[in-house]
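Appendix B. Chain record.
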Amino acid sequence: MSLENWSEEVALKYLQTVVVIDDGLLIGAEGLLGSEGGLLDPVDPLSVDPAEEDDIPPSDVEGSRKLGGRPAGHSLEGEALLRGFAEQGLVCGLLTPSTQEELQEIKDGKTYRRLFARADVMVLDWSLAGDDGRTTRALIQSLIGHPAGQLGRLRLVCVYTNTQDLERIQKELVSDLRSMDVSHQVPDSAKVGWVIQADDFRIAILGKMGVSRPPHFAISEVTERQLPARIVKEFAQAAHGLMPGLALNSLAILRDNALLLLQRFNSSLDPAFVSHELLTGQGKRFAVQLISREIQAILEAVDAGSVLSLENIKSWAKGTIAESDHDMPQVKIGSVRKFDKAAIVDALSQEDFSVQSLRDLPPAEGAVIGKAKLASLTSLFLQEEDALASDEYLGRLSCLSRDLFNDYAGAKSPTLQLGTIVARHPSCRGDGENNSSDEESLEYWLCLQALCDSERVHEPRGFPLLPLREARPGTDFDFLVLDRQGAKRALSAVARPYQMKVVEFAPSTGEDVIRAGKQGASFKFMDVQGSDWYWVAELRPEHALRVSHQMASLISRIGLDESEWLRLSGNNKK
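Structure tokens predicted for this chain:
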């Protein structure tokens, strides 16, 4: 199975809900049958000349006072859409506003806010009641905009329209996004059609059939029967790639196994859990750990990482190299090795491919990689600057569980515990004020307080903090974080135990942990002396425990008085 097909399969597993809004929807036969049992052609109220209204049949006059009137051939068969989405396994809701009041309810979003917020896909007509996109533009702005502190939702917005000029619609929506300061990209329409792509949404402009358009719009013209499958394809493009596919597949697997989780965590556990909580006071953390471990067990059992098969990885690598802008992919290990595109693609196409295939590949410029220490091949796929950014992002993801620029919807303020990285100004006075706001002067510290000692804090308590050294470019480091301005900071945990500092913090009223307070877009802790400690990030538990273990090993060293000759002749030279 190709990577493209796999992506669509994952998208179909994940997708559940579609909402269609079109004032030309035809649902059933009610109100549509004439006296002879035939379907009446709806009438567009905006196209009727009042002077000619007497010539319109009575049933059409009644229809023209509503929003449902449409020129013949511009309506959607609602039942056909429902059937098409049902065949894809998707739940579809149809909204067909027939009055100005219903249209206003949709535009305001008050009545349908929860419905729209939970829909994976929104299919919108462009011209509702002949307003040339005003309602649809307002609705799209409300769908992709979200209040500060709340994250958006991955969704596909599909404009399915009989408008002739699809490019004009794209330009108007791009103008709206720019006015909202929403980051987005406009891909090449000749390859993917008229779409707008962003991190958490994709807008696809599709044309209804039966409208005369220039030939270059054909890529975006879709019949009603084709619409469900096209929507799955567009959603797959919204989360296209290996890692997005992994995340989407994992979410779909968890949806499918929700019942299993409920069965595993059933009410028969309540007495034992309450007993554990009453005895230890740490039941909440324990229960969350159980849930997270169960989720990991499910993902591993169902092989959520199947998208990361060697076949898919090779397919992605070959496609990316073939389409890249730079003619000669390169690897930098001290000196730069440049390779011919075709040679790399041929190596990746080998049945018995391994990294040794690349190590042995003769470069177009430079020496063979051979046994040289190789930390990254990312520059084969991206320009050097972008390759470094990708490596750094994966590095941060692997060592940090949370930071200022990757928070969660509804997340509470962070607490001071094992793995918390904080920063302070050396010039911080005891009144909570700083003499400097310069990020360059910050000192970084790592909290090594055991988790059990970070909870049930009812009075001032000392927290051991280990200084972190900011590494110079080109030197070794342990963690990569972003400061409050988003600048990269490479930090190294090479301090000695005697450099640790124990700082006292007191809990806020009603808290039994040391919780950070919100300060603008950042968080800060205040110690009992009134000094500020800015929260930077949380290390993943394994990384925090590694540093803690290193410190414990240094503290537990046994110092011997022995012959220097004996020490240097043995295995304890360090």
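Further analysis of this model is presented in Appendix C.
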